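In keeping with the milestone schedule agreed at the kick-off meeting, the structural modelling team has produced records for the first pair of proteins. Each record is given below as a sequence line and a structure-token line. The laboratory manager (R.T.) confirmed that both were archived under the project's standard naming scheme.
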Amino acid sequence: MKKDFSPFKNESDCIQIGELNIENRVDRISIFGSVDITLDKEGQEVAKELKAIIDSTLAEMEKVDLPDKIAVAPVEVVDNPFK
């Protein structure tokens, strides 16, 4: 991975790969957007980076006794103070 990403450890890590955003939370990982994995060396690196993020996420999940489902608090939207 280009950046150290420790799943479920904080509320601040964010990785962008192409137009794909991967955001860290203490109770979830949010993935949104899109990215092209092309059939070339660049696409291979993108695929490896995504795989590393998923692998590290699964490794963290396998370390704990997971509940069947958690209640995810809704995201609070606030006005932009810089407008």
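The second protein of the pair:
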Amino acid sequence: MGLIVVEPTLSGIHDMERALGLLNHFKIPSFVCVNKYDLNEENTSRIVEFCGSNGVEVVGKIPFDPIVTEAMVAGKPIVEYSPESRVSKAIAELWKQTLKHL
């Protein structure tokens, strides 16, 4: 299984398409997670539409939150640093959705 984490930028979309092509070539099931989805919701929609048109499930969308940087500076994973944050909850849901396919 391949989990592609993409940010909603033009280069991110291009890289996602290339990675999906590679995974498809080797017949590896693929899934997508959009990181910082709320920074460019138009591009996020493009990603979701592209995935839908190509039979690729979007298993998660993680919001942008500066608390992630705080966690990095503290040397802790965000899910430990701030378990009730929007980001931590989105990561927990991503994990739950990903496990369904393992």
